[in-house]
Specification:
Number of domains: 1
CATH architecture: 3-Layer(aba) Sandwich
CATH topology: Rossmann fold
CATH superfamily: P-loop containing nucleotide triphosphate hydrolases
Strand content: 25-35%
Structural class: alpha/beta
Amino acid sequence: MKDNIALTVDHVSIDYRDISHMSLAKSLRKDGVKKANIFRAVNDVSFEVKKGEVIGIVGRNGSGKTTMLRSIAGIFQPDEGTIDTHGNRVSLMAIGIGFNPNNTGRENILKSGMLLGCSLDYINDHMDEIIEFSELGEFIDRPVRTYSSGMYSKLSFSVTAVLDTDIMLVDEVLSVGDEHFRQKSFAKMEELIKSDRTVLIVSHATNTLEKFCDRVLWINDGQFMKIGPTSDVLAEYNASQQL
């Protein structure tokens, strides 16, 4: 293992199996899954991320960006290739996953923290800081299913930003919420980046990537296109969208 490498993605491919066209009985048969339509969401992608590096990921909708992040977070297992986090703890900041909708915000903070490998004492010591940063007030003790998408993103960002992990994965969360919270989130991201946190950001906001990222990875329809300096890759990616 290289001491300065935080993440290695080596020839990773990820498939989705579409069985929506099949009957329940057929899908339960052993040969049913084999005959299901297979869609390759990520195809033979490789890259490395150094410790403390901030990497942006760009690509059109459906290019496999979110699938890649969720695989790095351990939610999906690659069908081919390997993902090595070199013993680093990973947190995923994304809308729509990670929280139990029937539990309160406070309960979800506890569960999320424990899933990140934090001790109960550590989470409780930072509970007030997370709640204060989230600005959810009395909603923190209400079920998450009652939250708007903006409130959900506030809680997700607050948990991941306050609790210490080695690699932080950010999937469009910085673009959600009111203007005040977006500005506060940007300031917090700058603080985290200065503390040498390793970060991967999926975003369609070019200004966000230009502000934070050392390099950008471009994925197109699941295929690796290019990884390099932020300004160079964004210029090439943007030019391709004009065609």
